[in-house]
Amino acid sequence: MFKLFKKGLRGRALAAVGSLALLCSAGGSFGGAKAYLAVKTAQPQVKAADSWKRFHSVQGECSISLPSSPEHVKQIMPLSDEGHNLRYDVYVAAHERKAVYMLLVAQYPPIVNQAHAEMSLESFLNGLITQNPENKLIFADLTEVQGYKALDFFIQARGTFFKGRAVMANNNLYLLAMECDGKNYLEDHFTHFITSFELKK
C-alpha cells in the first residue's frame, strides 16, 4: 500500500506538469481554470518536526525540510519543434510509512509569460483535479512566497488527502505536496514542510 502512495504521488504531479506543458507549447495561454480561489493572508503557527533534515535542490535553487532522504527522478520533455524543453526533477521522501512528501521542480523555457502566473497556477490545479474523477477540491487559496505567486490546495479522494502548494517563480514551477490516508494526517508536520520551503535569492 505504501509503495502505491509513492507511485501515486509522482503520478499526480507528472500528470499536472504534462497538462501545463501542453498549455506552454500551445502558446502560453493559461485560461479556462475551474477552481474557485480565495486570497490567503493569514500565516499559520509552525511547530517544528525535530527529526526532519533540510534538503537542497541544486536544479531548483531552493531548499526544504523533509522527513527522510528523498528518492530523485528527473526527465526532460520536448515542448515544441523549436527545441524548447521542459525539465523536471521530483524528490519523494517517506515519513514512517504513513505519509509521502514531495518536492517537484519544473523548469520551463523563457517562452512562459510571467504576467500569467496566477492563471498558470489555476490551470496546474485543474490538471491535478481532473486526472481522477473521484478527486474533490476542498479548498484552493492564492498566496505569495517570497514575492512570487503561489497556490495552496487540498484535494481529497476516497479518504486519501493530497495537500500542497504550487509556486511560480520566473520560469520554474515548484510543487510541494503531501499524500496520506486521512487518519494519518498531521497538521504540524504538513505546516512545517510547507513553511520550510525557501528559494535562494
Q: Mind explaining what this structure looks like?
A:
The chain has 201 residues and is an alpha+beta fold. It has a single domain (2-199), classed as Mog1/PsbP, alpha/beta/alpha sandwich (Protein Transport Mog1p, Chain A), CATH 3.40.1000. The chain is 23% helix and 41% strand. The protein has helices spanning 2-25, 117-130, 187-195, and strands at residues 38-39, 53-57, 62-66, 71-78, 85-95, 99-107, 136-145, 148-157, 160-169, 172-181, 198-199. The strands form two sheets. Strands 1-7-8-9-10-6-5-4 form an eight-stranded mixed beta sheet, sandwiched between helices. A hairpin with a 6-residue loop joins strand 4 and strand 5 (85-95). Helix 1 (2-25) packs across helix 2. The longest helix is centred in the N-terminal third of the chain and has 24 residues, at 2-25. The protein is globular and about 45 Å long. The relative contact order is 0.22.
H and E order: HEEEEEEHEEEEHE
- Number of distinct helices: 3
- Which CATH architecture? 3-Layer(aba) Sandwich
Q: What share of residues is helical?
A: 10-25%
Write down the domain tally: 1
What is the straight-line distance between the termini? Answer: 39 Å
Gyration radius from CA atoms, angstroms? 16 Å
Report the β-strand fraction as a percent range: 35-45%
Overall pLDDT metric: 79
The CATH homologous superfamily name equals Mog1/PsbP, alpha/beta/alpha sandwich
Instruction: Enumerate the spans where pLDDT stays under 50 for 5 or more consecutive residues.
Output: 25-48
Q: Name the structural class.
A: alpha+beta
